[in-house]
Amino acid sequence: MSPSIALAESEIAWMMGGQISHKTQELDQLLDSELSFKVVSLTARAGYRDFYAAVNLSQSFDDADVSEEGETGDASREDYDITLGWNITPEFTVFGGYKTGETEIDFKARDSVIEDAEGDITAAFTDTFEESGLFVGVGYGISLGTAGQLGFSIAYADMDADNDLTGTPDEGDMDEEDDVDFDDLTGTFSGDVSGYSAAAQWSIPLSDSLVYQAIIRYNSYEQEIDDTVQGVKVSFDVDERFYEMGMGLLYVF
């Protein structure tokens, strides 16, 4: 979700590119530590006059290590989005689209936990967290002359979330007085997600058709879950944050 670079002078401009980045994810209500991914991204864009469309695919290629009090494991992340934008002026852009992202965490219970549980525990399990929905945003670009272009963008997203938690549930029945945490849950739980992203991007032409880009991006989302567990109504606010720094090349046809 970022403003487009200047399009080629032809009526239709086609662009393809790739990027390598480092992405950090924080899930405060589930993990004590943050997830750190190495990510590869591919993008394809088409521009027609003052309008453009873009498809972006992102996948972690180096799993994040997970180290919690009771479990170890690894995690992966993938994201996809489709963006439509309008360059209202050479500097100002509005855009919107659809995005989906999923984090998958493979947990393994520590040996000490398995021994204490005397076999009444799921030794290995996978949790997945997926969010999908629409976003809208604005971008502003500043020409730096021969030093390239600096762009800023901010966007708001309204999404649905599906959380699939498969670990061993806490023993015993629940009642209204129980203090239930998000990481105590087992099952599939849906929620409403909203939040924003902010990005800064620097781009500079290396030739008539090749552009170098560097970007930093921050995403902050809050998920609201209202559900029933063992007949007890529960409500959670789950905070999720992403920090990303990357660089790549864009080829203009």
TrEMBL record:
Lineage top rank: taxon: Bacteria
Entry's localization field: Cell outer membrane
InterPro entries: Beta-barrel_TonB_sf (IPR036942)
Gene Ontology CC terms: cell outer membrane
Primary localization: membrane
Keywords, comma-separated and alphabetical: Cell outer membrane, Membrane
Protein name: Outer membrane protein beta-barrel domain-containing protein
